Amino acid sequence: MAAINSVTDLSNEGDVAVITLNSPPVNALSAGVRDGLYEGFKAAIADDSVKSIVLICDGRTFIAGADISEFGGERKGADLPAVQDMMENSPKPVVAAIHGTALGGGLEVALVAHYRVAVPSAKVGLPEVNLGLLPGAGGTQRLPRIVGAAKALDMMTSGAHVPAKAANAMGLVDELVEEGKLREGAIAFAKKVVAENWPLKKVRDREVAGATPELFADFRKANARKFRGFLAPEYNIRCIEASTLPFDEGMKVERKLFMELMTGPQSAAQRYVFFAERAANKIPDIGDDVELLPVKSVGVIGAGTMGGGISMNFLNAGIPVKIVEMKQDALDRGLGVIRKNYENTAAKGRLTLEAVEQRMGLLTGSLALEDLADCDLIIEAVFENMDIKKEVFGKLDAIAKPGAILATNTSYLNVDEIAASTSRPESVIGLHFFSPANVMRLLEIVRGDKTSKPVVATSMKLAKTIGKVGVLVGVCNGFVGNRMLSSRQIQAQALVAEGAMPWDVDRVLYDFGFPMGPFAMSDLAGLDIGWSKEKSSSSTIREVLCEMDRRGQKTGAGYYDYDEKRNAKPSPVTEQIIKDFAANSGVNPREISDEEILERTILPMVNEGAKILEEGKALRASDVDTVWVNGYGWPVYRGGPMHYGDSLGLAKVVERLKHYQDKHGDFFKPSALLEKLAAEGKGFKDLK
Q: What sign for the dihedral angle of Cα 252, 254, 257, 259?
């Protein structure tokens, strides 16, 4: 075996040259890998004793994609197109041997091989769309030629990882080889290709099947809602349309559109989010030496919507759950909802009935807190009331075993005050799940003043285990997400009081990229959350709507009117209520521009985020953005509130806040941190 460079080896197995990459952790297409591939193929092609070439990777995966840390920087090493040309134009058959994943650039390398073999556990895909990009090394032109236009559309606009068996069925993988015997299987396949004189198949020479104008029109129409606001899916579609052109012409289209995305703000934002989610796992004062606590059983207090959803996360991960309610009917209802959720998933083909029973078999219901005595983690998901929560934790303190983690799902309340109701505040932490808890990716992990490092470290690791994006935050009212949301809600209500209609505010925020605006969201959740009929005094628009039994979608009317399919339309009833409020308050309603609506709802969030950073309630600006992208529907292609502030320029943010401060008061006063960064010409990205 000869070393080509530090990450590439070349060896001969008889007349088969085997090029082996080993560039941990995922064999990404770094400069060293590209150089190794180029020189390895050059040497194998020049060796007269070699009749075929196998490309294989050591470690846990094939080439898992590009080295995105090189994006935007100076390119070094061999160009990927040069490597691909060397492989594709090899006079000797080239076989790509795939295990783990062949994603993005990894699959694009495999596509220039003449043949591909894989173990059944392997997966392939072109997920660049998730970074606001398209495959830039011929993937948009080769994939449709091998799997057809329809499958290429699905794969490239979803970024899906396709299992090897499915890839084999669609012709993307030529042969499956036995698990654990990839090297032997690939060498045997390469020898068969030579022995039987198989042709040197170039994917680029194939025709694209099924690329009709109707296919593309129907696909755009079917996915219009999902792709709204994103450039990358549309650009991927255009590239697949171009795959019907001669290959070199299609490549020119791919290159042009790739560069537009690569240099544009959307991909910059999506790449930022990618790294931000990974950075959130790094806690400066918690190293690898902090011992993790075992979590082999979980207790959940409350079988309502939140408690049930929280329980499902752990059941999905194979962790037994005991769920406690006060009354049998509430417990039965909660257990029934969990089962129904699983059965609905099974009915859609995303879960087997066997898996449903397996998960339900891990779930135990109880009416006694004492049954949680042996749980490693207990999560309280009861009514959002401090007295009730303190009472529950006081009881848990006497019941839970030593070392058990005691977690509260509170979304606003002081975790330190809750912890003080126990004799072990070091074991108490906030685990703020978002509704629906079995679906939403975000988990705000609230570190109290006395929460121990092992409890924090275990909670962060547990977030990964249950498929969540965990973000560590500090104790303050509403933590990071709801605290910033509150500033937006205050301004949304103020804008309506000054003359904007709820649907005006919602439209502006929807066009910005949110799934819905604040008033549509209130109607969906129910206007009567936290409303008391006995205490209601017609003092707010919401109270009046609730008193009229306009409590949102569930009653067919709220801020909006709804038809039988829950389609919303602006309500003349709500409009008159708003006008009456204005008249009674002595306000002269005015025309409010879309620009003002956007600035007054979004810029206070940026300012509040700066205050959170100033107070040390979030570790980094990117953590704030991770919360908002994963928990509140902030459009990923805008990167999060702090990234958005940076993209505007903090000097402009400060200038606009001061403009509104002059008109509407100190609610808009820029934070000290914001003013400091703006004065220094810096952004949140510069904070260390």
A: negative
Same-domain status, 416 and 525: no
Tell me the C-alpha distance between 311 and 303, whole Å: 9
- Which two tokens mark 437? 């808890």
Q: Which of 552, 584, 616 represents a domain boundary (last residue)?
A: 584
For residue 580, being part of any structural domain is answered with yes
Statement: residue 645 has pLDDT above 80: yes
Q: Report how many domains make up the chain.
A: 4
Residue 142: pLDDT above 60? yes
Question: For residue 527, what is the domain's CATH number?
Answer: 1.10.1040.10
Residue 651: its H or E element? helix 650-664
Shared domain check, 510 and 449 = no
Residue 379 lies in a domain: yes
Range of the domain at 456: 298-478
Domain match, 114 and 192 both: yes
Q: Report how far Cα 492 is from the mean position of its chain's Cα atoms.
A: 27
Structure tokens at 223: 């996915």
**pLDDT confidence of 69, banded at 50, 70, 90?**
low
Domain boundary among 262, 286, 318: 262
Cβ burial 458-482 (10 Å sphere, 16+ → b, else e):
bbbebbebbebbbbbbbbbebbbbb
Query: For 205-213, what is the mean pLDDT?
Result: 95
CATH code, domain carrying 323: 3.40.50.720
Rounded (10°) angle between helices 213-222 and 232-242: 170
In 242-326, DSSP assigns E strands to 298-301, 321-324
Look at residue 465 and tell me if it is in a domain.
yes
Range 175-180, long-range pairs (CB < 8 A, 24+ positions): 175/115, 175/117, 176/117, 176/118, 176/119, 176/120, 177/97, 177/117, 177/118, 177/119, 178/119, 179/119, 179/120, 179/121, 180/119
Catalytic residue among 39, 88, 128, 608: 128
Reported confidence tier of residue 75, pLDDT bands at 50, 70, 90 = low
CA dist 617 → 73, 443, 474, 602, 673 (Å): 33, 15, 4, 20, 14
61 CA to centre of own chain = 22
Task: Given the residues 108, 241, 277, 444, select the one marked as catalytic.
Answer: 108
Is 291 part of a structural domain of the chain? no
Q: 560 has which bridge partners?
A: 570
Is 391 known to be catalytic?
no
Q: Is 109 in contact with 29 (CB distance < 8 Å)?
A: yes
Let me know if 74 is a catalytic residue: no
